[in-house]
Amino acid sequence: MPAFERRVLLGGWLVALPALAALAIVLLTGRPGVELRWVLAGAALVLTAMIARWQHRRVVYPLYTLVGLLEALREGDYSLRGVSGGVLGEAIYDINALADRLQRERLQSEDSARLLGKTLASLDAAVFVFDGDLRLRLLNPAAQRLLTGERHALMGRRADELGLDALLAAPSAQVVRHVFPGRSGRFEIRHAPLRNEGRNGQLLVVNDVGRALREEERQAWQRLLRVLGHEVNNSLASIHSLAGTLASLVARDPLPDDWRDDTRGGLQVIGNRAESLARFLAGYSKLAALPPPQQRSVDLAERIAAVARLEQRLAVRVEDGPALSLQADPDQLEQALINLLRNAVEASLDGGKGEVVMRWRSEGERVLIEILDDGPGLPGSDNLFVPFFTTKPGGSGIGLALVRQIAEAHEGGVSLGAREGAPGAAAQLWLPLELARD
C-alpha cells in the first residue's frame, strides 16, 4: 500500500479514536452518571474535531501542492517544482519529471523555431503559408518584398486578395510569368498541402528564375569577353607592333639592303596572326551556331568504324559491341566522336605507345561510348570543357566544348577521367536509353 494511502487510513482511525475510547469507558465502567457521560461526550467531540482538523491538513495540503503544480503545467510554467519527499512523493516526482521534459521540449521547439525563422529569412525564394480558408498565416522577408506590404497588413488576407490564387491553382513545379507588386518576370512555383493541428493548409514557394538566369547570362558574357579580349588583343598587339616596325623600316632613306627580307617576314607574321584570329572567330561562330539535332536512325557500330577509319596517324582498335541503332543526328554525333578521337590520338602520340581503343555498350539506362588512350593522362585542370580553354599549343579550345554541346542536345553527356588499370585517359560519351533500340 502506498504511503499516502496508509496515512489516510491511519488518520481515519485516529478521527474515530476519541469516540471509541469514550465507548470503551462506558462499557468498562458500567452505567456512569449523567455528568460523566456529558464529560466523555464533550471530550470525545473536542478530540475528534482536533484530529479531523489535523487529518484534513495532512490530506488537503499535499493535494493543494499537486493542484498548483498541475495548474502551472497547464499555464505553461515549467519552472515550479514540488518536494518529492512528502506524502505524495511518487506523484510529485512524476510531475517534476514531466515538467523537466516539457521544459526541454519547449527549449528545443524555440530553438527549432528560431532556426526555421533564420532559414526562411535567408532564403531568396518567397515562402507563403495559407490556412484551410487560403488566408495568409506565414511569409518570409523575400515574400514580403514581392508583395511590398507591411507584415501585419498582409497577414490574414486571402490568396485572391493578394493575387496569389492563380499560382496556387497552377500546376506545381512550373515556370510562369507573373506580376507582383514588387517585381515581375519569370518565376518557378511549387506548392504542396499542409496539415497543422488537424487543420489543412497550403504551402507556396516562389523562386525568381529570371534573376538567376540573368546572373548566369552576365557571368557567361563576362567570361566570353575576357577570352575574346585576350585573344584579339594578343593578335592586334603583335600586328600593331610589326606594322610600326615595317613603317619605320620603309621610311628609312636610303633603304637597308635586307629591307625586302625583313618586310616579307613581317608581312608573313602579320598574315599568320590574322589567319589565326580568323580561325579563332570561326571556331566561336561554329560553337555558337550549332543547329538543333536532326535525329534519324544511326547504326552505332557502322558510325564508330567510319570515324576510326578517318584517323590516319595510327591504327585505332575498335572492339566488338552490341548491335545498337540510335536516334541521333549522324553529322553531329560523328563530329563529337572525331573530336574525342583526335584528342585521344594526340595524347597517345605524346609519350604513349600509340594505342587507342573505341568501344560501346549498354549500361543501365544509357548507351555508353568509350575512347581510351595510353597517353600521359589528363592535365590538372577543371576547365577542360570551358570554351576556348586549351592545354595544347595552337589549340582552339573548341573541341571538347562542342562535344559537350552536342551530347547535351541529344539529352546525353560527356566526361573525361583516368583510365582504369592502365595509363592514359578515358573519354565517355553517353545517350539515354530511350534514344536507343536493340
UniProtKB/TrEMBL annotation:
Catalytic activity: ATP + protein L-histidine = ADP + protein N-phospho-L-histidine
Root EC class: transferase
Source superkingdom: Bacteria
Biological processes annotated in GO: phosphorelay signal transduction system
Domain Histidine kinase: 227-435
SUPFAM superfamilies with a match to the protein in the record: ATPase domain of HSP90 chaperone/DNA topoisomerase II/histidine kinase (SSF55874), PYP-like sensor domain (PAS domain) (SSF55785)
UniProt cross-references to Gene3D superfamilies, sorted A to Z: Histidine kinase-like ATPase, C-terminal domain, PAS domain
Molecular function GO labels: ATP binding; protein histidine kinase activity
TM spans (from-to): 12-30
EC number: 2.7.13.3
Keyword entries, A-Z: ATP-binding, Kinase, Membrane, Nucleotide-binding, Transferase, Transmembrane, Transmembrane helix, Two-component regulatory system
Record protein name field: histidine kinase
Lineage: Bacteria, Pseudomonadati, Pseudomonadota, Gammaproteobacteria, Lysobacterales
